[in-house]
Amino acid sequence: MLLIIGCTASPLYPLHRHEHHESRKPLQTFRPYNIAHRGSNGELPEETAPAYLRAIEEGADFIETDILSSKDGVLICFHDVTLDDTTDVANYEEFANRKRTYEVQGENVTGFFTVDFTLKELKSLRVKQRFSFRDQGYNGKFQIITFEEFISIALEAPRVVGIYPEIKNPVLINQHVKWADGKRFEDKFVETLKKHGYKGSYLSKDWLKQPVFIQSFAPTSLVYTSNQTDLPKILLIDDITVPTQDTNQSYWEITSDSYFDYIKHYVVGIGPWKETVVPVINNYLQTPSDIVKRAHAHNLQVHPYTYRNENKYLCFNFNQDPYQEYDYWVKKIKVDGLFTDFTGSLHKYQEWTSSNRRNNSDDKTASKLLHKIASLVASY
């Protein structure tokens, strides 16, 4: 019951300045990373300050975000290139004439694009929950935040929390946003990280102090940024039917051994859609591919996305139990990090299966502990 009360009574905090912590608990590196996908967005609207604060409270190792730009060149945290699905932009008469059609990754997309709004205008909007089956109670309460505001949340956390920003749709951004100094989206992205002290190669002293992974679906952006910073980078990989957005390479090309040999000079890992790692047919898992084994053979980490607790996202093999899913991916597939919408559940799994828990005489296995908790909550 205390566990349940603790989860449901977690407070929401406004974005504000925290005092600096001289001696913070370090990042854990002995187990797969718990990556809060757009914050704790299973509970709160994605990529908002409260979603990130909740994720940190729930035990995230990294908070993840997508970086786009406003019309006036300010980097913001937002996933879609259009504002339609996760803001109330349609309610503003003064913005009715802003709807545009642009080519995005080879397709015409119509909507209200972030690149057609100044930061001040974007800040006037309010964010809403993307999925109708999730809590709608926080709709209209939170603003879009900037990249720098996102960084401040991580740096002011009571323990070391890494950030995992994505260079999102760089082709579109570089087409529609022009910076006065002639620099491009990727330049501004790296400059922001440097401004706030992010530096160092993977697991270096500097990196462990302020951990970060730079991610993108655009290989050329990762190669370009590798000439500006030695911070670790992750190549994101989409569904097998989707070519890369900037080089038009197929899934099969970018997951080949020869490409892994090439890209390992620029990245430390890959972030594949999890169904390309383990295919799913009629909601049942199929035989796992060899992508993880081959990536590891090239000294590349593997951080699949996205893990979600709702039954519609859980394969029948897991008996509608997200902890079974985590266990499968960590122990059988042996991934190095997991993007999850439910940071708290992954953290609890990690704690229940940690070595010190397994050595406990009362709870030698995670299974026993899970059964014990199930018996406690059964009557509720």
Keywords:
380 residues, alpha/beta, TIM Barrel, 6-stranded mixed sheet, 32% helix, globular, disordered N terminus
CATH architecture of the domain at 33-80 and 145-360: Alpha-Beta Barrel
Q: CATH homologous superfamily of the domain at 33-80 and 145-360 - what is it? A: Phosphatidylinositol (PI) phosphodiesterase
CATH topology of the domain at 33-80 and 145-360: TIM Barrel
Largest sheet: 6 strands, mixed
Number of strands: 14
Q: Give the uncertain stretches in residue-range form.
A: 1-19, 356-364
Describe the structure.
This protein is of the alpha/beta class and 380 residues long. It has a domain at 33-80 and 145-360: TIM Barrel. The protein has helices at residues 2-8, 49-57, 119-124, 147-155, 170-176, 185-195, 205-209, 219-226, 251-254, 257-263, 274-277, 291-297, 322-333, 343-352, 355-358, 366-377; strands at 33-36, 62-69, 75-77, 100-104, 107-111, 145-146, 162-167, 214-216, 233-237, 269-272, 280-281, 284-285, 301-302, 337-340. The strands form four sheets. Strands 1, 2, 3, 6, 7 and 14 form a six-stranded mixed β-sheet that branches. Helix 2 links the parallel strand 1 and strand 2 (62-69). Helix 2 packs parallel to helix 4 (147-155). The radius of gyration is 21 Å and the shape is globular. It starts with a helix and ends with a helix. Residues 1-19 and 356-364 have low confidence and may be disordered. InterPro entries: GP_PDE_dom, PLC-like_Pdiesterase_TIM-brl. Residues 32-350 form the GP-PDE domain. GO terms for molecular function: glycerophosphodiester phosphodiesterase activity.
